[in-house]
Fold:
Amino acid sequence: MKKQIKKQQSGRSMIEMVGVLAVMGLITAGAFVLIGSASSSQKRNRVIDDVMEIASGMRSLYAVREEFPAKSDMPAVSTLLNSMNKSSVGPYSGSAYSVERASGTTFTISLTKVPNGDCSALKIKEWKGKTATPTCTVDSGDSSVSTFAITFEK
Structure:
């Protein structure tokens, strides 16, 4: 008489598979959060770099003058940025830079369509020099975005 050998079944139970899928879902969700945070940080860093370059360009452009020109004599921001090989388009969807004379010795650089959280982060950033005054103004058409503006002295 032959003995019957029982074969053990190998495989995974349904509970184990659900557990693995849950862990994978958590890892994926965490990755999306990190990617979003890194993207936002990268955009803020680009704004900081752009604003500092524009401010430096403005100061260089009018270094020999006693004061900044009147608005009608000031070149368009696109002309200024083109001379620096930069675009007037900001890093956010639909955003654009502008430069205006605030007074004879000050000018303001503005960026539209900045998400409120990023605008607040840019506002509290410690800007180089004590001659910069940042502000955030919530756009009237869309309360989720603001206009970031920073005023520099000559």
